[in-house]
Amino acid sequence: MFRAVWLLLAVGIFPMNALSAVNVEKIEYKGWKNSYRVSNGEVEVVVTGDVGPRIIRFGFVGGQNLFKEFADQLGKSGEEKFQLRGGDRVWKAPEDPIATWAPDNGPVEIRVTPTGLIAREPVEPLTNLQKEIEISMAPSGTQVTVSHRIVNRSLFPLEFAPWALTMMAPGGFVVTGFPPRGHHPANLEATNPLVMWAYTNLADPRWKFTRKYLILHQDPNNAEAQKIGMFNRDTWAAYVLDGEAFVKRTQADPSKTYTDFGCSFETFTNNEFLEVETLGPLTKVPPGKMVELAEQWALFRDVHMKEQTDDELDRVLLPLVSSLGAVQSK
């Protein structure tokens, strides 16, 4: 038994325990020699160890990567400035051009856990923040809990929010739900903000609004940037591409303050990718303390809809979202 475990460790395969179907394997991924694959045999997550923390792939085993990859940035590290690269990352909100865009181009510490791993960067010299991402995969099925964390390593309290940004492969569309709808005059109070940026153009054909849903299409032939934000206690989004759907879900707290005029969800697109973003509450973080934004992820096959109407989106997407528990961040 001990000889078998030693041999697995020697070749870079980390069995979680005798009863677990989740394995972590050290691999080379598109030029990054120190990458790690977490898989339960049905889905797989690939985390880069040479840069990050960054999840560069999420897909069915042997299937397409639902995440964007910038081919000219794969396998590289050590750049002076921040690189988009693709995949899923954690940022500090509110956004500013210096601290938020701090480079994550160096090696990260990888710690294997019973259900996945933790990828932790060194303390950022520019911000005195330390970011990490933890992946916890179910032993079967497609669900993964992803926790995005930021620790204040400075000597003083700092106020910021965790921000999880997932860059999706081009050619699909994202759907998110509004808070529960009502009727006038029975429901007179405002329910949620819908937030615009200076470059937001609601006449852009990539947007579609129904009574219950917001939809944004990614168009590789349209380079104009678009972004919008909103708040929903039950924050979720589904990105549909080539018959497969990536769904992420988290829980927001309406009693707390959120950045960008109160957004728990934001989405951005241009001609290269579409970004699905969730945000945690703005928090004054004491030295040595952490904020966390936890999301539940899942993948689904054979996701098709005849039209993007409330009835069809209810039929196709709501069962997928309902199958994910809404995790509560710390």
Description:
By secondary structure, the chain is mostly beta strands. The chain has a single domain, classed as Beta-galactosidase, Chain A, domain 5, CATH 2.70.98.10. 8% of the residues lie in helices and 42% in strands. The protein has helices at 2-10, 259-262, 310-316, 318-322; strands spanning 13-15, 23-29, 32-39, 43-48, 55-60, 87-93, 109-113, 116-120, 129-137, 144-152, 158-168, 173-177, 194-196, 207-209, 213-217, 226-230, 234-241, 244-251, 265-269, 274-279, 283-285, 290-300. β17 (234-241) and β18 form a beta hairpin. The two termini are 38 Å apart.
> What structural class should be given to the helix and strand makeup?
mainly beta
| Fraction of helical residues | under 10%
Order of helices and strands, N to C? HEEEEEEEEEEEEEEEEEEHEEEEHH
The count of helical stretches stands at 4
Tell me the domain tally: 1
Order of strands across the main sheet: 7-8-9-10-22-18-17-12-15-14
Cα radius of gyration in angstroms: 20 Å
User: Per CATH, which architecture?
Assistant: Distorted Sandwich
CATH topology: Beta-galactosidase, Chain A, domain 5
Gross morphology is globular
- Give the DSSP E fraction (strand runs of 2 or more residues): 35-45%
The number of E-state strands comes to 22
- How is the biggest beta sheet arranged? 10 strands, antiparallel
Give the mean pLDDT. 93
Classified by CATH, the class is Mainly Beta
Ends: how far apart? 38 Å
Contiguous runs where pLDDT drops below 50 for at least 5 residues: 1-11
Q: How would you describe the oligomerization state of the chains in this entry?
A: single chain
